[in-house]
Amino acid sequence: MIRPFIKKDAFIAPSATIVGYTGISFKTCVMHNSVIRGDLAYCYVGAYCVIEENVVAVAGTIANPSGDVSIEDYCYIGSGSVLRSCTIQRYAIVGNGSIIEENVFVGEASIVEPKSVVPAGTEIPTGQIWGGNPAKFKGNVDKFTFADRGNEMRAMCKQILKWYKPMYLPYSLAWLEKEVLSRRRETEVAETEFSSRTQKG
C-alpha cells in the first residue's frame, strides 16, 4: 500500500487531505481543505513551503499517468489554486486562484499573478512575472535575492507552526490558558489587597 511520507515537523491541517504517493518535507505547512494527491504519479512538496487553503495538487492523469508534481523548497501556493502534473521551482510564488496545467515549468523566483491560467506545456523562465488567462509575460522580478525569499518563507512557516500546531495536538492546551488566567487573577487579587492595606495604614 502506498502511503504519504510526511516529515514530523511539517504542519498538515486536520481538514487537509494527503493521499497516495506523496512526500511533504520539513517545516512545510499545508493549510485547511487543501488536497495533495499522488494517485497515479509522485507529488512532492519541498521544505519551508506554504500551501494555502483550498489548494488542489494532482500528480498524474489518465491521459498523462507519469506526470509528477514537484513543488521545490521555499514556494508559496496561494489559496484556491489548482496544480496538475507541473514543476514549481524553489522561491516561486503562485497567486491565489491560479490554475497551473500539465507539464508547466515555473522557474526559480518567478511569480504567477492571482487568478492566472498557465496553459499546458508553458515554461516560465527564472525571475519572471506572468499573469492573465492565458498567462503571458508581464515583467521581471526587481532586485530579487534568493536569501530574502528564503528568509520570508522561513518566518512565515515558523509563525504558522506557532499559531496552529498546538491547536491540533492529541490534547488541547486550554488547561494551560486556564492556569495562566488563574495566576493572573490571583496576582490581581493580591495586588488589590496589598493596595487597600497600604491605604489604610
Automatic annotation (TrEMBL):
It comes from the Eukaryota. InterPro entries: Transf_Hexapept/Carb_Anhydrase, Trimer_LpxA-like_sf. This is Dynactin subunit 6. It comes from Rhodosorus marinus.
